[in-house]
Structure formats: structure tokens, C-alpha cells
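To: structure desk
From: M.T.
Subject: fold request, one chain
Message: Could you run this one when you get a chance? Sequence is below, nothing fancy, just the single chain.
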Amino acid sequence: MNHKKLSWDKKKTKCVVLCGGKGTRLLPVTASKQKTMIEIAGKPILKHIIDYWSQYTNDFIFIVYYKKEEIINYVKTLPIRSEFVELDELKSLAHGLKSAEKLLPENFVAVLGDCLVKGDFHFPPEMKQGIGVWKTNVENDIKKSYSVESDGMIARKLVEKPKKLINDLCGMGVYFFNHKIFDYIDKTRPSALKGEVELTDVIQNMVYGEKIIHAVSFNGHYVNINGSEDLKRAEDIFNGS
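Reply: Done. C-alpha cells follow.
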């Protein structure tokens, strides 16, 4: 049976938000504004993210790069505990996550700064590590993210930006990790496509290494904001349309 409550101790958990990207698909808006600072339903994307994940922790780490001052100055006005990791160069999500290793507790949540959620996760009891999984009948949602094959609540196979779909499960930009992830980042080879260590490859290697990665089901609305159509979709959701 799944549960809505995460079994981790809220006081010993942190949320790391990866928000260093340039948001080139949202040009010309992102030429003058950090992507996460674009407003949806009257407040920045980043504030929606912070508001949602504050139910799990009040400690946040922000991985920043492009227009980082805009994020840093804004976050410092909020009633949360915050730390910042300022990248020297923008590389893969795995690289960004690795940069925060020394600041993170044993268990932590990692979320992408362009992924909005409105709804509930259902956690397996005593979950060690997991990835957010959402059912959708919109194939493009999965094709622009990653697909997940699961055996019940256990993730078995992840495919980044799949061309062919075998089910309706969309892997989300939401991860529930412990420090084991960093060992696997270190020993995962860069992908042939981008020449960088991809987070989906890291998680797949954990599965191969017999680490249990739960497929944490999500019930509600999920938007991975890439283009203007995603902004409109998020606006409709958070305005209650």
C-alpha cells in the first residue's frame, strides 16, 4: 500500500533545486530574465517550487549559473533556510547535483527548476530512493522527458527522451536520493550523445547495481516547462482553469 507521507525526517532532509539553465527555448523572454523567475499565476516558477516542497523540508540548496544574482537576491527575501552553489560552467544535471554533495544530508530531494507539480506523491513505506513517476496520455510529455518501465513500485528501466513508448509512465524531474547516488555519478561514463554524465544513466546504473529505486507515483498535474505552450498550460493549472 502506498502512503502520501515521506518517511524521511523533515528536519534532516534538504531539497536541492537545479536552476542554472539558460532556458533557450523560451527566448526572447529568458534573454532578460532567469527562466525560474518567469511568473505563473502571479508568482515566479521558483516560488511555486519552494511552496510545494516546503511540506517536506524548510532547507533548500539552489544550484545556480545563468543570471544567478536574480535567483539569489529573490530567495534571500523568503522565510526559508537557503544555500547556493554557484557553478563555474553549465553541464549535466548529474554534474550540478554532484556540486552540492558536501552540503547534502544522507537523504534529500532533488527537483528541476522548470518542473511544476500540483497534487500528491504516494510513497512506499520506508523508501530509500525513488523517482517521481506520472501517468499521462500525452505522448510528448514522455518523449521530452524520460520513460520508466517498472515492476510494481520498483523502477527497472529508464530511457532518456524515448522515440518509442511502451507504456504511459513519464519520469519526472523529481528525485528522492541518498548519498549512494554520488558513488554512481563518479563511475557512470559520459553519454555518447552529449559527452556528459546523464542523470538517467546514473539511475539506471544504480538499478543494475541492485540498488532499489522506487517508482514513486504522482497523482495530479505536472508540467515540465520547456516552451511557451508549457507556460500556458501551467498558467491554466495554477489559475484553476
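Reply (cont.): Residues 228-238 form the longest helix (11 residues). Let me know if you need anything else for the meeting.
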